[in-house]
Amino acid sequence: MYEVRIHGRGGQGAVLAAQLLATALVFDGKYAVSIPAFGFERRGAPVVSFIRSSEREIRQLTNIYAPDCIVCVDPALARTVNIFAGLKPGGTLVQATSRPLAEIDVPDSVGTVGLCDAVRIATEIFGRPITNTLMLGAFARSTGQVSLDALKKVIEQSDFRDAGLRQNLDALERGYAETTVHTLERRITA
Amino acid sequence: MNTTTLDTAPTTEKRPAPQLMLCEGNEAAALGVALARPDMVAVYPITPQTSLVEKLAKLIADGRMDADIVDAEGEHSVLSVLQGGALAGARTYTATCGPGLAFMFEPYFRTSGMRLPLVMTIVTRDGITPQSVWGGHQDAMTVREAGWIQMYCETVQEVLDTTVMAFHLAEHHDVMLPVNVCLDGNYLSYGTSRIEMPDQAEVDDFMGRKDVNWHVALDPLRPMAVDPLTGGSGGNGPETFVRYRRGQCAGMKNALRVITDMHEDWARRFGEGHRFAPLVEEYQLDDAEYAIMTLGSMTGAAKDAVDEARAAGEKVGLIKIKTFSPFPVEALQHALRGVRALGVVDRSVNFRWNCGPMFQETLGVLYRLGRQVPAQSFIGGLAGADLTVTTFHRVIDETRALLERAPSDEPVWLNAKD
């Protein structure tokens, strides 16, 4: 079982990203489940969604408290929310940020960091900071848990049309290509 | 015997590769409705049901579903409009929850009295007040004396399959009762997972010919008294009223058999991925000393906890109720045959008995066993609270303790601070 928690803000598409990722995982031949956390969602407020994937059928329909990977699609969210809560030792952080690794506050539990300047790229592509499909590309690059081909197929089959479809495919590919992945010296062992 | 286990011989028949897709529980319900080809749906949106009726509206607008859709001004009208539709011979559907169900109560009770075979999904939501828009079984539990059949689903696939089967059940001549398919708001309504779509032609064959208003109709060519004034203390009023009630109870009793048969037929047609226990599922129960009981989408996490406890040497099993109304007394009695302690987890409250509703119903079955089985009520998952594998380890531990000590008169409140 591989568990992912996506952090974002209302309006950035964190819940949709979780559904797209779960669908891509199924295209890759896995079982997958996604669930949004339920709270007082509104535009700009912190939101969370969860994805589980496995080679076997997944039975538990619950939130995730000890993820293998955290995807944070908003650069400033970590100042408001403890996005690292419960991360498994040696786990992965995939973070939207314009900063280099040295300027990011990463707790000892993190083993791998994928960084993507998603807001800048999204602004270039969409004219707006919609980072969700970009960060799916960043996730694929950082973890290898899902294929870029499967993510492309999902986006092609989704409700995106015409310009929106091209933009989102572009965002996915640039998210994948423009993510830097850092393996940290293991500071906590499982 | 009504009990069904999940291991029966696989069918040998060759089928085309199933169409795999990913969808949320609400979408699965809408796709199930489309497969059943209703003539008419009436809707009023309410959280957490909204995405279900939005999907229905889209299926109809896209031409993937050929039904009239009525955007009524409220839930009372939704159900009243559908009653008219059913009396005119239409296969009808709606979905609601919580306050919407409460607003619908007057026509809700009339639906079963007139034996109208409506299907209505309850995307279960906790009761207000205090204010909440999240999941819990309080809405469906509160209306359990209104003569509707109620089946609770565990997975997204089960939502899809049960929704189709519900129409077959409601319209069965031995039943002729409205059916609620209950799917948990939040975890199941918005939970996305992998499903296999049944083949439309095969579903059409399963459903057979629509026959909705053979017994009661608004039809100038078949004039009859519909919903006449009955009761009172004189003439044939009392006898007529009793005849209605006995008929409803007989339909309920017959439903246990029809539900069992149709689940078997469904699994035989669509394959083992579509096999679901119709009344009561027995999980790891054969040599279990004690068991926990679940309902709805909490069951997946509970099964994972049971597997982990088994791996640690615990002789624990699980009993899942699928059909809550009619209550599957004999099937549950069979499931409890070897159980020496029982923990029952409810996602709603029975205020009268200070316990969960499923716990209270189960007490009647324990009485029939003719031996003392210590049982504990657990209440959790209210208003969207999470019931995790960790939660169920606590339930398992506290149920095992009943082998040594008496249960508490108080329920165990699983999501409380203490």
Descriptive account of the structure:
The complex is a heterodimer of chains A (190) and B (418). Chain A has 190 residues and is of the alpha/beta class. In chain A, helix 1 crosses helix 4 (148-157). Chain A has helices at 14-27, 118-126, 132-143, 148-157, 162-177, and strands at 2-9, 31-36, 46-54, 69-72, 91-96, 110-116, 179-183. The radius of gyration of chain A is 15 Å and the shape is globular. A 7-stranded mixed sheet of chain A has the order 2-3-1-4-5-6-7. With 418 residues, chain B is an alpha/beta fold. Chain B is built from 13 helices and 15 strands. Chain B has a 7-stranded mixed sheet, with helices on both faces. A 6-stranded mixed sheet of chain B has the order 9-11-10-13-14-15, with helices on both faces. In chain B, helix 12 (357-369) links the parallel strand 13 (341-346) and strand 14. The two termini of chain B are 42 Å apart. The relative contact order of chain B is 0.13. Classes of the chains: A alpha/beta (190), B alpha/beta (418). Chain A binds chain B through residues 18-19, 22-23, 26, 31-36, 38, 58-63, 65, and chain B through 20, 22, 24, 134-135, 155, 186-188, 190-194, 297, 299-301, 303-304, 384, 386-389.
Give me a quick take on this structure.
The complex is a heterodimer of chains A (190) and B (418). By secondary structure, chain A is of the alpha/beta class.
How is the secondary structure organized here?
The complex is a heterodimer of chains A (190) and B (418).
Chain A: E1 2-9, H1 14-27, E2 31-36, E3 46-54, E4 69-72, E5 91-96, E6 110-116, H2 118-126, H3 132-143, H4 148-157, H5 162-177, E7 179-183
Parallel strand pairs in A: 1-4, 4-5, 5-6
Antiparallel strand pairs in A: 1-3, 2-3, 6-7
Helix pairs in contact in A: 1-4, 2-5, 3-5, 4-5
Chain B: E1 19-24, H1 25-36, E2 40-43, H2 50-61, E3 68-71, H3 75-87, E4 92-96, H4 98-103, H5 105-113, E5 119-124, H6 138-142, E6 149-152, H7 156-171, E7 179-184, E8 192-197, H8 200-207, H9 237-270, E9 280-283, E10 290-295, H10 299-311, E11 316-321, E12 323-325, H11 329-335, E13 341-346, H12 357-369, E14 375-379, H13 389-400, E15 412-413
Parallel strand pairs in B: 2-3, 2-4, 4-5, 5-7, 6-7, 10-11, 10-13, 13-14, 14-15
Antiparallel strand pairs in B: 1-8, 6-12, 9-11
Helix pairs in contact in B: 1-2, 1-7, 3-5, 7-9, 10-13, 11-12
